[in-house]
Amino acid sequence: MHATTPPRLGHVAIAVREPRRVAAFYRDLLDLEIVRDGGNPLTGDAVLLSGDPSREDHELVLFTNPAAEHIAFRVETARQLRALYVRAKQRGLAVPYALDSAVALGFFVRDAEGNAVEIYLARSRPGHDRPLLSDPEEIDRLMLVGEGALP
């Protein structure tokens, strides 16, 4: 892992009471572009913003459910993603969820103070959206075998 580029900050996801109002603040002050406005049962209402959607699908996520707050780190290769997944498991970290979405593949862990951390690989071509995986065997299959999702 040390011979490769370390993961970089991909996005920050924070809970707010009024995502659309807060998104307007970031849009108007920083010229961030609203890339999606919606949500789901896990996040509540959500708005996703990016300074450059062609480079990064979203960099700031605003939603109503505080339990969905996290910080996300982006890796550049499937090999890096697998290596970090193996490293997390070897260190005894629980992996409560894995993500196989239209824009990314990744997994979640918690840091030493319980903050959620997502480690993901952006898709070069949009894929399919699947619900978050929580079964450890399904997560292993996705992260280690790839089920066709990881190159």
Query: Which term fits the overall shape?
Result: globular
Total number of helical segments? 3
Number of domains: 1
Summarize the helix and strand pattern as letters.
Answer: EHEEEEHEEEH
Query: Could you tell me the mean pLDDT?
Result: 90
CATH H level, superfamily name = 2,3-Dihydroxybiphenyl 1,2-Dioxygenase, domain 1
- CATH class categorisation: Alpha Beta
CATH topology: 2,3-Dihydroxybiphenyl 1,2-Dioxygenase, domain 1
Helix content: 10-25%
The low-confidence runs, each spanning 5 or more residues with pLDDT under 50, are none
Number of strands: 8
What class would the helix/strand composition place it in? alpha+beta
Task: Write a brief caption for the model.
The chain has 151 residues and is α+β, with helices and mostly antiparallel strands.
List keywords for this structure.
2,3-Dihydroxybiphenyl 1,2-Dioxygenase, domain 1, eight-stranded mixed β-sheet, 8 strands
